[in-house]
């Protein structure tokens, strides 16, 4: 029990230090975490000797995260990257349902294709990995970011270009479409970008509770989006999010 309490306190200390890039003193740590100063000092000494923390300023004795924690973070990032996590999950879905599965992520203002899985029969993909989507309003991928990525909260479309007769070109209609998507937890595209295809996109969240990607299923227009398929896609996006460190905290 005491060991568990000690581990919890050490993790809380490291988390607090990580939130203070300019450093934080022993007194501040003790006060903010409600830990006796002597106890906090003992933990910090152990962390200091392990290169988990160091003094940013020897005079003011402000602690910052050390090289050991940075190395652990780098290893986590390498082993838990979006593509690495997605690959086996996407492959299983592709083998079960066929058609095309796509993983995207936002890079600055662009939404980039980072992974796809398509069986030999479908031949749906018309894009290159590393390329970006052309329009943000004409497909479920772009709408997924509009609905769930806070980066686009203040997005104000000016001219919504008509790509097919089914493309949403009115701002009010698009906003209503996104409101419905937020309630459902995923976005849809029915012939809005290509009259021969439809798609579903599901947000992927990371350890910062930020929408960091989207999982998309694209199929011919006559393909049935069954409840089982949608349920499996929801589970897959949640599994990927959890593996990336996401912990739901009462928000969407």
In short:
The protein is of the alpha+beta class. It has helices at residues 2-18, 26-33, 37-49, 67-79, 82-97, 140-148, 171-184, 227-243, and strands spanning 53-57, 62-65, 100-107, 110-118, 187-190, 197-205, 211-220.
SSE inventory with pairings:
Blueprint: H1 2-18, H2 26-33, H3 37-49, E1 53-57, E2 62-65, H4 67-79, H5 82-97, E3 100-107, E4 110-118, H6 140-148, H7 171-184, E5 187-190, E6 197-205, E7 211-220, H8 227-243
Antiparallel strand pairs: 1-2, 3-4, 3-7, 5-6, 6-7
Summary tags:
252 residues; alpha+beta; Arc Repressor Mutant, subunit A; Beta-Lactamase; 2 domains; five-stranded antiparallel beta sheet; 8 helices; elongated
If you had to describe this structure to a student in words, what would you say it looks like?
With 252 residues, the protein is an alpha+beta fold. It folds into two domains: 2-75, Winged helix-like DNA-binding domain superfamily/Winged helix DNA-binding domain (Arc Repressor Mutant, subunit A); 80-243, GAF domain (Beta-Lactamase, 2-Layer Sandwich), CATH 3.30.450. The chain has helices spanning 2-18, 26-33, 37-49, 67-79, 82-97, 140-148, 171-184, 227-243, and strands at residues 53-57, 62-65, 100-107, 110-118, 187-190, 197-205, 211-220. Strand 3 (100-107) and strand 4 (110-118) form a beta hairpin. Helix 5 (82-97) packs antiparallel against helix 8 (227-243) and helix 6 (140-148) crosses helix 7. The longest helix has 17 residues, at 2-18. The mean pLDDT is 88.
């Amino acid at each position: 029990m005491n060991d568990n309490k000690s581990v919890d306190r050490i993790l809380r200390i490291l988390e607090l230090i990580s939130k203070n890039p300019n450093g934080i003193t022993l007194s501040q740590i003790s006060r903010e975490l409600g830990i006796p100063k002597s106890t906090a000092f003992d933990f910090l000494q152990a962390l200091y000797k392990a290169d988990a923390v160091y003094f940013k300023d020897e005079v003011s004795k402000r602690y910052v995260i050390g090289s050991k924690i940075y190395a652990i973070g780098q290893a986590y990032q390498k082993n838990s990257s979006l593509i690495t996590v997605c690959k086996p999950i996407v492959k299983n879905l592709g083998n079960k349902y066929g058609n095309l599965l796509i993983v995207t992520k936002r890079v600055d203002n662009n939404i980039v294709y980072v992974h796809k899985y398509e069986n030999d029969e479908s031949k749906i993909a018309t894009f290159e990995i590393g390329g970006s989507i052309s329009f943000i309003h004409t497909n479920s991928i772009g709408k997924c970011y509009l609905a769930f990525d806070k980066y686009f909260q203040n997005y104000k479309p000016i001219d919504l270009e008509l790509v097919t007769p089914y493309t949403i070109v009115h701002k009010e209609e698009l906003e209503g479409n996104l409101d419905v998507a937020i309630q459902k937890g995923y976005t849809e595209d029915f012939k809005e970008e290509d009259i021969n295809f439809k798609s579903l996109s599901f947000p992927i969240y990371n350890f910062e509770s930020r929408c960091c990607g989207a999982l998309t299923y694209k199929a011919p227009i006559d393909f049935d989006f069954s409840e089982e398929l949608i349920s499996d896609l929801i589970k897959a996006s949640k599994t990927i999010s959890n593996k990336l460190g996401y912990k739901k905290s009462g928000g969407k």
